[in-house]
Amino acid sequence: xxxxxxxxxxxxxxxxxxxxxxxxxxxxxxxxxxxxxxxxxxxxxxxxxxxxxxxxxxxxxxxxxxxxxxxxxxxxxxxxx
Length: 81
Known about the structure:
By secondary structure, the protein is mainly alpha-helical. Helix content is 69%, strand content 0%. It is elongated and about 60 Å long. The termini are far apart.
């Protein structure tokens, strides 16, 4: 029986920690922002939970776009997706 697979345990644990941190950060950001409410918040919550990495990156990209638009003085008529 080979023990070569044991060298991958730290890498897998680190990857799991990174995914959990990214997902938790996106969820905290989602609930702290005042621009999403009701159904849109539920939608993003589901996306981040079902697709932890892609959903979290998508939410943070949408949030970044929204923040830059607000800082540039654009009209905030478009709510977050």
